[in-house]
Amino acid sequence: MTLDRPSPAGSPVGGAAGAEADRLEQQFGLLFDAYRQRLRQRATEIDPSLQPSGYRTIVTLINLGPTGATHLADVLGFDKSVLSRQLHQLELLELVTREQDPADRRAVIIHATPVAVARVEALKTLERDEFRDRLSQWEASELSDLIRLLAKLNEA
After folding, report:
1. pLDDT grade, residue 9 (50/70/90)?
2. What is the pLDDT of residues 26-36, one digit of tens each?
3. Is residue 56 a part of any domain in this protein?
4. Angle 102-106-108 (CA atoms, 0-180°, nearest 5)?
5. pTM for this prediction
6. Percentage of the residues of the chain whose pLDDT score is greater than 90
7. Is the C or the N end of the chain the one with fewer CB within 10 Å?
8. What confidence tens digit (pLDDT) does each residue in 85-98 have?
9. What CATH number is associated with residue 88?
10. How many distinct structural domains can be found in the chain?
11. Is 12 in a helix, a strand, or coil?
12. What is the CA radius of gyration of the chain?
């Protein structure tokens, strides 16, 4: 969706610049669609019944290390009830365990199991190899330009 608002320089984005912005937006849409598709695929590679949100949960937990449910929900942007359902499914699949927090008996600490870590690490290696293979035909200057332009966009 393109908004009719002035560009940072004060002039509205229109004409050729507007058309280019629309093309860029379309490319980002395609990129996000491909990401969602890969997320679904990776989830089913862990287990056919695993939803993409469950895959995000386990990957985030592995990256964070053992953590409390409240912190994990905050990082993921999930409501506690959504996270609770995700954790229940992940426990049934033997991908996470919960233990009582010794510092606060009312809270739990969530751990990824060794099986979960091994499966996710294998998928991460596959993803990294596929990504590098896709970029292997690019010139170094093209990669540098893409990195520079994405950084500029992220800073805007």
Report:
1. low
2. 999 999 999 99
3. yes
4. 60
5. 0.76
6. 77
7. N
8. 999 999 999 999 99
9. 1.10.10.10
10. 1
11. strand
12. 20
Distances (CA, A) of 46 to 52, 74, 76: 10, 24, 19
Q: In degrees rounded to 5, what are phi and psi of residue 147? A: -60, -45
Tokens coding 144: 């540098």
Structural tokens at position 145: 């330009």
Confidence of residue 101 (pLDDT cuts 50, 70, 90): confident
| DSSP string of 58-95, one letter each residue | HHHHHHH-SEEHHHHHHHHT--HHHHHHHHHHHHHTTS
CB 116 within 8 A of CB 96: yes
C-alpha dist (Å) from residue 62 to 47, 67, 124, 130 = 17, 10, 12, 21
Tokens 């060794």 -> residue: 114
Q: Which domain range does residue 21 map to?
A: 15-155
Joined tokens for residue 117: 């870590």
Contact 81, 88 (CB under 8 A): no
Whether residue 23 lies inside any domain: the answer is yes
122 residue type, one letter: A
Distances (CA, A) of 150 to 19, 46, 144: 19, 31, 10
Q: Are the C-beta atoms of residues 58 and 120 closer than 8 Å to each other?
A: yes
Which structure tokens are listed for 52? 């993409």
Q: Is residue 1 part of a domain?
A: no
